[in-house]
Write a structure and sequence with these properties.
single chain; alpha+beta; 7-stranded antiparallel beta sheet; 6 helices; about 30% helix; disordered N terminus
Length: about 210
């Protein structure tokens, strides 16, 4: 990850006054020390002390992130907040650290970064701003949406990077039998994601530092 991107993460943590789990700080420090998987690898290390080999019994789907393109520090912070809750149970209607549903997690994470977004995935999609459809334009902290084309949302997550194979990775709270975790998806509009299709992304922090 470039030094500029690292600086963005550091400044985000220092500049935004919010008390979040110390895992986020540990994760950011792991990023600084040079893990190849950037933000995702760093936050995993901060939470679980080095990943599955470090003793975690949670299968939260850690992907091999190799590229985490950075946007605003607000987005970077929101993504770090979301990742600090990996393993938190899915709760229908949940919007607190006791449990999250998909849009509850995204709303909470952006609120922690100082950005107010609506409750509910459809409302978050409608709020925009909708990004161009080129996957290369995705940056860490973008909201990514899934459902029925062209724009009927059923699920939302927070983009955190790409795998070596070009799959996009999000942190999300996918369903009532799961928990906050990493999931991969194809960042091509209309691509299948389970029984749903990828609808596109928005950038709530687009005009912020």
């Amino acid at each position: 990850m470039k030094k500029k991107a690292l600086a963005v993460v550091i400044v985000a943590i220092l500049a935004l006054p919010i008390a979040i789990p110390m895992a986020v700080v540990g994760g950011a420090m792991a990023v600084i020390t040079g893990g190849v998987s950037g933000v995702v690898r760093g936050v995993w290390d901060g939470i679980f002390g080095g990943g599955p080999a470090g003793g975690s019994t949670l299968n939260i789907g850690e992907p091999p992130i190799v590229d985490a393109p950075m946007g605003s520090m607000v987005q970077a912070y929101a993504a770090l907040v979301a990742q600090s809750f990996l393993g938190t149970p899915y709760v229908w209607g949940g919007e607190s650290p006791a449990g999250f549903d998909c849009s509850g997690l995204t709303q909470y994470s952006f609120a922690a970064a100082g950005v107010s977004i609506p409750r509910g995935g459809q409302a978050q999609l409608n709020a925009g701003p909708l990004l161009v459809t080129d996957p290369s334009q995705l940056v860490v902290g973008d909201l990514v949406f899934f459902g029925e084309l062209p724009a009927i949302d059923d699920h939302v997550g927070i983009f955190v990077g790409f795998t070596n194979g070009g799959e996009a990775v999000m942190v999300d709270a996918p369903n009532p039998t799961s928990y906050v975790r990493y999931d991969t998806f194809s960042p091509i509009i209309g691509a299948d994601w389970g029984n749903e299709a990828y609808l596109g992304a928005t950038n709530p922090g687009q005009n912020l530092p």
